Amino acid sequence: MTNEVPLVEIRNATIWRGTTCVFKDLNLIIEQHERVAIVGPNGSGKTTLLKAMNRELYPVARPDTVFRILGRDQWNVWELRKHIGLVSQDLQQRYTPTTTALEVVVSGFHSSIGVHGTLAKRVDQQQLDAAHTTLDELGIGSLATTPLRAMSTGQQRRCILARALVHKPHTLILDEPTAGLDFAASFDYLQRIQALSAAGRNIIVVTHHLNEIPPAIDRVILLQNGRIAAEGRKSEVLTETQLSDVYETSIRVTEIDGYYLAYPGQNAKT
What does pTM read for this prediction? Predict the structure, then answer.
């Protein structure tokens, strides 16, 4: 038995995004050492849940509502980054094309987009050394002074991964990790995620593509229209029946070497 608090504890949470109520009375617990995939079609609530976990959104304040990260209701965002690292295409696109790999990674220490102006004065040698080491570990150390515009999309994504890893967080949240990548870059990136998981990091993958879910993922949370349609072991959730129902089209599923692949069923909509 363990007294370890959950990574995420959500009880009776109603979450709005703008003028839209995305979740009503949401209940969800993710333990610290779980490897989880959050899956669902566009509009199912994946991004809203991700933003809430990342403290960009908060639930409606009610006496019976709980939304805790590592047992705490409130977090300083800079402190939270030491525990949870975020990698997303959206974050990648917020950097200017002239930002170098080193600047991307160092900005992770300051939860900023780049290290310009007065912020540059807060960068110290320890941060620079850690950034160089992390870039080396991801095989892009030689690109430290290279601007993003001179890199491939796959190299840019590794820069964002390095930004998250520079804090050595226990948990990585990967939002549609291979979006925009070609086959070679996708396979390389998925192998790196698998290696990070094998090395002991907690991995949460947010996606609507089954092939982005590494074999190390144990649990799947399937969302549909702001509710949890199913959750449990990967083999129990990623079934043809459940996926066809949630995505409202006929889906066939196959598993190869721990990866799940979806393809159209005979009665798929055209």
Answer: 0.90
CB-CB neighbours of 44 under 10 Å: 23
Residue with tokens 């599923």: 253
Beta bridge partners of 259: 256
- Give Cβ neighbours of residue 97 (< 8 Å, ≥ 6 apart): 147, 148, 149
Domain span at residue 148 reads 84-168
For 256-268, how does the pLDDT look when each residue is reduced to its tens digit (9 = 90+)? 999 999 999 876 5
Q: Measured between alpha carbons, how far is residue 158 from residues 113, 155, 162, 176, 193 in Å? A: 16, 5, 6, 14, 11
Confidence of residue 269 (pLDDT cuts 50, 70, 90): low
Q: Evaluate whether residue 146 is within a structural domain.
A: yes
DSSP state of 239: -
Residue of higher predicted confidence among 243 and 179: 243
Look up the CATH number of the domain holding residue 160.
Answer: 3.40.50.300
| Average pLDDT of the segment spanning 66-81 | 89
Two tokens, residue 116: 């310009």
Total domains, the chain: 1
Beta bridge partners of 227: 224
HSE at residue 144, side-chain half, CA atoms within 13 A, is 13
Rounded mean pLDDT, 98-105: 96
CA 144 to chain centre: 24
Q: Is residue 192 part of a domain?
A: no
Does 54 reside within a domain? no
Task: Give ∠ CA 153-38-205 in degrees, rounded to 5.
Answer: 35
In a domain, 133, yes or no: yes
